[in-house]
Automatic annotation (TrEMBL):
Keywords: Signal. InterPro entries: ConA-like_dom_sf, DUF1961. It comes from the Eukaryota. Gene3D superfamilies: 2.60.120.200. It comes from Paraconiothyrium brasiliense. This is DUF1961-domain-containing protein. It holds the Pfam family DUF1961.
């Protein structure tokens, strides 16, 4: 199988912070999505260095789209996000493993099809951040971003979401940065901190470590994604 990334040069790239690039996807050709795993109906298209994700099912059929890689703990993930059709909601899943620390694709786990309870209250462990929460009226009249830790529907952090409605986006992309550093998580948009989480005092089960990451969308959201990178801290 051909992975969409990591030429030798990229794998050796480091920042001044001593970080190492683990994964970069510029969505620059049709092989960019090779190895990605869709759960639930998604229409994923790549063009002009942009990944466009839209739901492809009924109004209440949502999707989770897993990257082909398993990542270690202590990573920084960045991407650019542009909502182009609302309402809807975007999420980012990270540190996903089975509850016993194995693969989320272990055949002994329950089947999943994008329906949220299968992810937050079942046999997988993960953190999941929701942003651009515009699916329901109560989300649209007060814009917040949430971090939940699962298994369990544990809301562990929350902050105001500065991303505007589609009509005011005017072609802008919003740079999202998630840092997952052992017990600490931060979530930023355009360098503005929305929330942070320190998993030292919550009674929410074992600390989430390394694992898989995914993009999730709730209909009828259509959104563009660019320049997805994962750096090892
Ligand atoms: C796409 O980008 C990757 C690096 O992200 C590069 O290695 C590859 O050559 C590019 N492909 C095309 C068709 O430009
Ligand atoms: C899938 O997305 C592409 C590009 O966004 C769009 O042109 C096409 O109509 C969509 N197809 C379906 C079945 O939704
Ligand atoms: C392609 O992307 C560039 C850079 O983001 C943008 O300026 C241009 O309008 C896009 N072209 C199309 C056809 O979407
Ligand atoms: C997904 O599974 C749930 C049961 O967990 C079911 O209610 C729902 O209809 C399924 N959705 C799709 C798109 O198959």
């Amino acid at each position: 199988m051909r992975w969409p990334i990591v030429s030798t040069i990229l794998a050796l790239a480091t920042t001044s912070m001593g970080e190492t690039l683990l994964y970069r996807n510029t969505f620059n050709d049709t092989s960019a999505l090779q190895g990605w795993v869709a759960e639930g109906p998604v229409n994923a298209t790549v063009s002009n260095n942009t990944l466009t994700l839209a739901g492809a099912g009924g109004p209440d059929d949502y999707f989770v789209y897993w990257l082909p890689e398993v990542f270690p703990d202590r990573i920084r993930i960045t991407w650019e996000f542009q909502p182009i059709q609302e309402p809807g909601l975007a999420m980012f899943f990270f540190g996903a493993t089975s509850v016993d620390g194995g693969s989320i694709f272990d055949p002994s786990l329950k089947p999943r099809n994008g329906s949220y309870p299968q992810y937050h209250s079942s046999d997988i462990r993960l953190l999941h951040a929701s942003y651009f929460r515009r699916r329901w009226p109560e989300e649209r009249n007060f814009h917040v971003a949430n971090l939940r830790k699962s298994p369990g529907f544990n809301l562990v952090a929350q902050g105001a979401d500065p991303i505007p409605s589609v009509e005011d986006v005017q072609g802008a992309y919003y740079k999202i940065e998630v840092v997952k550093d052992k017990r600490e998580v931060t979530f930023k948009v355009n360098d503005l901190l929305l929330f942070s989480f320190d998993d030292t005092k919550t009674d929410t089960g074992p600390v989430v470590r390394g694992g898989r990451i995914a993009l999730r969308g709730m209909q009828p959201l259509i959104a563009n994604y660019r320049n997805l990178e994962v750096w090892k801290l």
